[in-house]
């Protein structure tokens, strides 16, 4: 069983989703044996009663009749019980809610109870047959009542069951794609963000941290836009955890700081415990093992009462890792065995299970104790679990390293070299410099977009204040006129003077708004130039220098494999260098600033026609010679977005770009002879949303249509200044 799939503490923001939007975050727990249920209930009642939310929900239940509101309250109570570690009582509460829903003929409530029961099972796999039966029933009911969101939730819950089973991972990915489509069709923004969360988990398991970051950033954007605090409790800590994988500790700590604010808002102790472990991981990666150890021991204590075996197993494994680094191998072996035993007790007998926290530790301990044969046995067993499973790349990399070291000490150089080469290939793929650069750009882009949103919000508020001031003064003027008409023409003169003063003030405010907008654009331009310059002058030059040094290697003594690897490295470096140059150029093309939009579009088409199958034709007729500044940059960026769509999706042989003036408007037309465009989903794409946002800043519009002769036609119009 893969470690990452079991880290469900903050990967799922919703156990149930009541129609009153009273959803609470949850944590992952395991069922206690039934013979201990009564004793558990008695010992936990005191602790549960100390939770004000649970106590309030119980009081509310005493006042509610047997109706749909009672079902929703039972769901919410179950959520908070599970969230606080009392999963057996949560399950009893969900079953009670299911019975009430059946009595009052409230199918939505029954479906959500079944989904929640299946979600609990996804953490420990003690009775997957029952969980799938719950989901089968929930799916049929959701189809019957035509609820697209609930249908998507069934797909998502089933994917969570499959994420813990190696040969079911492809099925899990397919189910998540189906779930996302259902949530978009519904539409249900909260659950759409939850689907991105699950997809990010899968990508993180593959070692594809950049893709994971982008999925979590998508989830964060949605949750912040709709004020979904309970969703952010999952997203922010996970985003910090993946930044740790890329050694981006500053970004990770920023995420944890925001997550702690959410935890305080929701009184969520589980999130605080999770953040505690991630801070321990930072100390661990920095080599400060003595500092990390007490944090992991605090986790062991937190997960022992209430008893959370899945999380406790990982905490034991982390403590074992620290003792390995501190050369205390007896304690390391003790905690590693506790990790393995605790984990395997939670998994049903029909499921084979391997706890990689423990398995990787065993190999490290045996290496340190010079028991190389046991290292080989342990590492080969772990490697067999991870072969051809892309979600297990980090674990597979560790097992390959252990095998290489063990065979080297066993004086078997051929096997040692074989596993070392595989280890290097996996490690280089997982943590290369290009991934770190792209992750940094993704983070920077998100922060920049947030700053722009703040500026636009401030401008909107200022405009609203102007409008309010104008309306207020006009109302006063109207009232004055009624009285002043009865007095004298002199008072009328005062009114006219007052109106002129108001117009002057409004004109001044409008001018200041224009100055603010111009300053914002200048700041954006300076920042784009700075980033482009740093990419081109610093990063690109270093990559180029590195490539020259590799080209200067004496390869006369290389064998065939080494020549091939040398050539591959040179090719990759060339691709990285080209990517950096392309990014820096697109941030702020020099020709766009110096010669205007027309010259930039001509150069763009010349470049495209060198490297692509699609042939691009351009017609400008000097329409864009004098188009510069903000308008030129936004139209150039829109053209890039449309060209990228053609190259990626259209399968076109020819595309036409035209720029012309007509009736006081500047018109940009991009068309192709490809396979056309799905008009039903045209507003769902992020690229089209970016185009809409840019046109709003210019006061322009766009229209997408399919051509009669095949292909897509996009018309963009912006008003020209008088």
From TrEMBL:
Keywords, sorted A to Z: ATP-binding, Coiled coil, Kinase, Membrane, Nucleotide-binding, Phosphoprotein, TPR repeat, Transferase, Transmembrane, Transmembrane helix, Two-component regulatory system
Top-level enzyme category: transferase
Pfam family, any one: HATPase_c
Signal peptide stretch: none
Organism superkingdom: Bacteria
Membrane-spanning ranges: 480-497
Coiled-coil residue spans: 457-519
Domain Histidine kinase: 634-722
UniProt xrefs under InterPro entries: HATPase_C_sf (IPR036890), HATPase_dom (IPR003594), His_kinase_dom (IPR005467), Sensor_HK_TwoCompSys (IPR050482), Sig_transdc_His_kin_sub3_dim/P (IPR011712), TPR-like_helical_dom_sf (IPR011990), TPR_rpt (IPR019734)
TPR repeats: 233-266
EC number assigned by the record: 2.7.13.3
GO MF term list: ATP binding; phosphorelay sensor kinase activity; protein dimerization activity
GO cellular component: membrane
Substrates-to-products reaction catalysed: ATP + protein L-histidine = ADP + protein N-phospho-L-histidine
UniProt cross-references to PANTHER family, sorted A to Z: NITRATE/NITRITE SENSOR PROTEIN NARX-RELATED, NITRATE_NITRITE SENSOR PROTEIN NARQ
Protein name: histidine kinase
Organism: Spirosoma endbachense
Biological classification of the source: Bacteria, Pseudomonadati, Bacteroidota, Cytophagia, Cytophagales
């Amino acid at each position: 069983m893969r470690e990452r799939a079991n880290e469900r503490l903050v990967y799922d923001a919703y156990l149930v989703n009541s129609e009153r939007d009273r959803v609470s975050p949850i944590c992952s727990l395991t069922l206690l044996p039934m013979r201990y249920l009564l004793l558990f209930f008695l010992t936990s009642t005191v602790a549960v009663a100390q939770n004000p939310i649970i106590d309030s929900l119980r009081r509310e239940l005493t006042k509610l009749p047997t109706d749909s509101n009672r079902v929703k309250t039972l769901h919410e109570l179950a959520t908070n019980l599970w969230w606080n570690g009392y999963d057996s009582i949560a399950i009893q509460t969900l079953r009670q809610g299911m019975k009430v829903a059946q009595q009052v003929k409230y199918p939505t409530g029954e479906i959500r109870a079944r989904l929640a029961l299946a979600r609990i099972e996804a953490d420990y796999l003690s009775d997957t047959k029952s969980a799938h039966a719950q989901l089968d029933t929930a799916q049929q009911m959701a189809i019957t009542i035509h609820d697209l969101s609930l249908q998507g939730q069934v797909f998502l819950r089933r994917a969570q069951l499959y994420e813990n089973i190696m040969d079911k991972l492809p099925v899990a990915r397919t189910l998540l794609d189906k779930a996302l489509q259902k949530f978009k069709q519904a539409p249900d923004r909260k659950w759409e963000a939850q689907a991105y969360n699950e997809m990010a988990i899968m990508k993180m398991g593959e070692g594809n941290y950049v893709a994971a970051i982008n999925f979590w950033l998508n989830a964060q954007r949605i949750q912040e836009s709709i004020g979904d605090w309970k969703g952010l409790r999952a997203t922010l800590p996970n985003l910090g955890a993946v930044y740790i994988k890329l050694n981006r500790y500053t970004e990770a700590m920023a995420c944890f700081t925001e997550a702690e604010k959410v935890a305080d808002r929701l009184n969520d102790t589980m999130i605080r415990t999770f953040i505690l472990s991630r801070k321990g991981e930072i100390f661990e990666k920095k080599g400060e093992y003595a500092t990390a150890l007490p944090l992991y021991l605090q986790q062991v204590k937190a997960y022992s009462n209430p008893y959370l075996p899945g999380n406790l197993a990982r905490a034991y494994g982390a403590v074992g890792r620290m003792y390995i680094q501190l050369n205390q191998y007896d304690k390391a072996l003790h905690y590693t065995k506790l990790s393995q035993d605790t984990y395997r007790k939670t998994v049903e007998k029909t499921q084979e299970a391997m706890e990689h926290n423990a398995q990787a530790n065993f190999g490290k301990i045996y290496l340190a104790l010079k028991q190389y044969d046991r290292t080989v046995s342990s590492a080969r067993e772990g490697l067999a679990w991870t072969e051809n499973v892309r979600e297990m790349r980090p674990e597979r990399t560790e097992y390959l390293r252990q095998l290489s070291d063990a065979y080297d000490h066993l004086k078997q150089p051929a096997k040692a070299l074989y596993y070392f080469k595989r280890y290097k290939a996996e490690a280089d793929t997982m943590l290369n410099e290009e991934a770190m650069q792209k992750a940094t750009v993704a983070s920077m882009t998100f922060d920049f977009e947030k700053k722009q949103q703040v500026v636009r919000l401030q401008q909107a508020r200022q405009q609203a204040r102007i409008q309010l001031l104008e309306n207020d003064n006009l109302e006063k003027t109207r009232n004055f006129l009624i009285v002043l008409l009865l007095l004298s023409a002199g008072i009328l003169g005062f009114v006219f003077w007052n109106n002129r003063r108001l117009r002057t003030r409004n004109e001044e405010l409008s001018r200041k708004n224009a100055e603010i907008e111009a300053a914002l654009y200048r700041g954006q331009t300076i920042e784009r130039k700075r980033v482009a310059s740093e990419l081109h002058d610093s990063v690109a030059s270093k990559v180029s220098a590195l490539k020259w040094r590799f080209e200067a290697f004496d390869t006369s003594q290389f064998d065939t494999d080494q020549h091939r690897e040398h050539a591959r490295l040179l090719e990759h470096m060339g691709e990285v260098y080209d990517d950096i140059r392309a990014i820096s150029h697109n941030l702020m093309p020099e020709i766009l600033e110096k010669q205007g939009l027309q010259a930039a579009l001509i150069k763009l088409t010349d470049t495209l026609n060198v490297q692509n199958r699609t042939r691009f034709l351009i017609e400008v007729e000097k329409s864009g010679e004098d188009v510069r500044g903000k308008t030129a940059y936004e139209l150039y960026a829109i053209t890039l977005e449309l060209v990228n769509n053609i190259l990626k999706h259209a399968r076109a042989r020819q595309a036409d770009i035209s720029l012309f003036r007509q009736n006081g408007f500047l018109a940009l037309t991009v068309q192709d002879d490809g396979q056309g465009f799905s008009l039903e989903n045209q507003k769902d794409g992020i690229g089209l949303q970016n185009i809409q946002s840019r046109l709003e800043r210019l006061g322009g519009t766009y229209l997408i249509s399919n051509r009669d002769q095949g292909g897509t036609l996009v018309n963009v119009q912006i008003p020209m200044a008088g």
